[in-house]
Predict the structure.
Amino acid sequence: MLADLLEQCWQLLIAPHWPRLRDLLQADVRYRTQRLGDYGLEHMLDDLDARARWTGHSIVIDGPAAGRHRLGGAGLLLMPSLFVWPDLIAVIDPPARPALVYPARGIAELWQPAPTRHSAALARLLGRTRAALLESLAEPASTHTLARRHGLAPSTVSEHLAALHGARLVTRHRHRHDVLYQQAPLGAELASGGPQP
């Protein structure tokens, strides 16, 4: 009976939104993987959550429940979630695999990308749709991800991305079966309203 109720919850509450939710989770995993490869574990954990920090040999999590847990070579699974914000959850009790569940990056913009103080000026320059797409590409995203995020047809998004790519405002590269777009340096400068550090 419990399994049937969980299935009903999935079908009613999650399944209709799963493509958008999955996009956000995959973007978080790509970001963490890139940070880990480029800068190492300490920098990858830097912006995971303000309550978690790497000391060089352990992860310290600030919170009300004090305690120590040795992984003993079991590893630690980092698990982005859309349902734990604002919490950070350490799963350490057997038989579960040790895991740190944290809010996925970009959760605040899950349903509607947040406009910046430069959005109106960018829209006057590029047009509202192209400006919104450019702002959404601070993190890599596919045509279908952007279409879901902005409520547009994939063909419309593709046309706008081609124009942005032709103007050298976005870059594209293949990742498995997807082509991912991201702000080029010039696009990032335009979207943020000034030169990037």
In short: The mean pLDDT is 85.
